[in-house]
C-alpha cells in the first residue's frame, strides 16, 4: 500500500480497546508517544498545605485530591494528624501541642518525616503524580525542610495556604469536623471546643505565614477568608494552573445538587442504546412527577441543566422553569453501535462487546467515545457545578455515572458500574469532608437499563455468557 | 396537548430541540449555551502607561469574542486623539493642565456613553475600558455609572516596576503610535517617560483594604504574582484563569494540517484514513523544515486521527495526541463527497452554506461546537512556548481565527491548504503570519461559499464551488 520512505515511518495500528493509533513493530507496541494527559509536568508535584488548625486544610486537601484523581491525575493525600494518632494512640489534651513540649515536638517531627517518606514512596515507586501534604506547616523552618526534601527527590512544590480570621467560620469548622474527630471521641461538645481553641493558640505564636517578600521565589496560592481573596505566586506549570483555577472556583456555601436522568425513552424500552428518541408515556409521567418534586423541595434559586438531546429537554420542559442546554451533557457516543441492542452488538461486534467488558472505563466505541473521554468533556460542567449553588442536572446514564463518581470519589473501575436507574433523583449535599446522598424514586415504573459486568469477559466467550447480564426489554 | 408538555422540534440549522407551538416559535425557556453572566460586564483596566493595559485589553477581547462572548475594547487614548487631533508633547498630561483635564474627562464620559450603547443596542456582553484609570475618583465615576445601569464591574490592574520591561514595552508599541509619528526614537522615548511621570504623581493603586468590596485582579510584573479579589461570576472566573495563563515570552506557534490523505484525494470529508504517497512526502518535508528552523524545546501536538499521527511520526520526535484536535464530526455525512451530500441531503447542504459557523451536521458537530471543544487547547497554547500543532482543516480554521481575531462569519472560510505551514509569531498587539508551502503538491480541499444558498437551488448551483477530486 503505502511506499516505505527512507526514514521508514513506523507502522500504525489502532489499539483495539482505546482506539488509539500507535506505532507497532513486530506485532508489539513501540514505546513512543504520550496521550494527552492532564498532568503536563515532567516531574511529580508535592502540594503543601499551610495554615492554623480549623482553616479548611483537610477539606481542601481531600477535595483537591478527589478532583485530580477524577480528571486522571493519580493523587494521594498524606494527613500528618493521622500519623500522629497512629503513633500516640491516645490523645489526652491540647498540652501535646504546646510549643515547649519537647516530647511532643519530637513525636510530631517524626510523624512529619514518616509522612514525607511515604510521599516519596508514592511519587517515586507507586506511580503517583501528585501528593498533598496535609499539615499545619506553619513555620518557615518546617517548610524549608519540605522544600529541601522535594529538591532532593526532584519534586516540584506548590504551597496552598489558608488564612482566615473570621471567628464564625472557624467555629462552624470546628463543629462540622473537629468534634467528630477520633481525638474527641470521649468528650462532650463544650470540652472539645475549649480544648481545640487552646490547641489553635499553641500554633498561633510561631505561625509564619507565607510572605510576599521573603517567599517570593516559592510557588503558592494564599486563600484568604474562604475564597474572597487570593494571592497567587509563580505558577510553574499546567497542573499548578489547573489547581489554582479549581481552588478559585470552589466554595462552601451550603447547597444541594440534584442528579437525575431523563424520563424513560422509546429506545430505553426497546433495549437500544444511544440515539435521540423522545419520552414514553411513563417518561412523561416521570417528568410531571419531577416537576412536583422540585416544587415540594422549595429550592432557592434552582438552576436546571439538560443535555442537547430530546429526552432530557422534554423532561425539563415539564418543570416549566428556565433551563440551560449543555452539549457537554450529551450521552456517551456509541459510534457504530448507536441505537443497537446489546444482542445486536454481540452479534455484529462480539470482539468489541468483550473488550468493553474487559475495561469499561477506557473502552472507546468505534467512532465513538469512552468513559475516559466523557470525563474530559464533563470537566467544565463539574467546574461550573462547583461555582454554582442549587442545581438540578437532567442527564443520561453514563454521564450521571461520571458526575456521581466525582462527587462520591469513586474509582475509574467502579465508575462505569454505578447504579443510576431511571426515574430516581439523587440529592447530593456536601457535609463535612464528603457528600450526603439521598436517593428518591419518584414512583413511576421504568425499564432497567443497568448491565452488570458478566463473569466471562473473554473475547471467545459464547453468546449466552456475553448476554447473561443484559436487562430485560421489549 | 397539555401546555406543560409542548411537542419538541429540532431546529434545522443548529439541531437544537425547542418547543414547537403551532404558529410561531414560543419564547424558549432553554438557552442553548451556558449562561456566562446575567448582566453586562465592564472590565476596567488600571495602571500607569506602558504596563501592558492595551495588550491585555486586546488579547482578552479576542479570547472572549472567540469563545462567543460579544466583547469590545474602548480605548480612551483613541477618544483623546479624536478630540485633540494633534499631539504636541507630554505637557498635555500634566495634572495641573486644566484645559487638558477637561478634554480628558469629556473623553471618558463619551467612552462610557458608547459602552452603554454597545450593551443596549449592539448586544454587547463585555466592554473593556482601556485607560489608565489611576485615580480613585475616576474609578468612582465608572462604578457609579455601572451601578446606575446594572452592569458588573471587574478591574484589571497591571503593576510593573521593572524598568527593562517598561522600556521594551515603549519600544514595541509606543514609538509607532500616531502620537509620535513625527518624532525620532530618542525624542519619543524621552517624552513618553515624562508622560508616565505625570501619572505617577496621582496614581492610587487598588488598595487591599479600601477596595476590598471591589472585584479585581492585580497582575504584578507580567504575571509572576496575582492578587484576586471577589470574583463574582463565571465570566470573571474565566477571565482570571485566562489572564493567569498568558505570558509575553517570545515564541512561535506552527499550525499545519496532516499530509494529504487517501480520502482527501477522493474528495471525501471526515473519516480516519491514512496518508497518500504525497502526504507521506509532506511528512518528510515537514520533518526537514522543523529541523531547519532550529526551534528551541518544540512541542508537537496531533489529534487522535491516523493521518495527523502518521505525519508526526515522520518527525522522529515525541508528540502528544489530543482528542480535542480531532476533525469536525460530520455525523451522517462522514466519508461522503459533496456531490453525495447534495444528492442525499440537499437541504442540509444548503443550510450549511447559509450559516456555516452555526450549522451542525445531523448527529455531528458545528464550527461553534468545535470552538468550545478547542478552548482547552487554546488555553494550553497560551501557556506553552514553541508548539507545532498538526491538525485538520476545520480545526485549523478555528485556531487560526483565534490568533488572527477573525469573526465567526470569516472563520469557516479561512484558507488552510494542505502541505502549508503557518508560522504565527506574536508581535506588538497582534500576530505575524508566515505561510510556508513545503513544495509537495496536494489536492485542494477548500470549498468557497456559492452565490446561491437557497434550499431550492439547482444541483449545479450547489456544487459550483466544489474543488476537484478523483
TrEMBL record, chain A:
Keywords, alphabetical: ATP-binding, Hydrolase, Kinase, Multifunctional enzyme, Nucleotide-binding, Phosphoprotein, Transferase
Domain 6-phosphofructo-2-kinase: residue ranges: 40-254
Active site: 262 (tele-phosphohistidine intermediate), 331 (proton donor/acceptor)
GO molecular function: 6-phosphofructo-2-kinase activity; ATP binding; fructose-2,6-bisphosphate 2-phosphatase activity
A single GO BP: fructose metabolic process
SUPFAM superfamilies listed in its UniProt record: P-loop containing nucleoside triphosphate hydrolases, Phosphoglycerate mutase-like
PROSITE patterns named among the record's database cross-references: PG_MUTASE
One Pfam family cited in the UniProt record for this chain: His_Phos_1
Domain of life: Eukaryota
Residues that, per the record, bind substrate: 261-268, 311
One GO term describing the cellular component: cytosol
Family: In the C-terminal section; belongs to the phosphoglycerate mutase family.
Protein name per the record: 6-phosphofructo-2-kinase domain-containing protein
Organism for this UniProt entry: Denticeps clupeoides
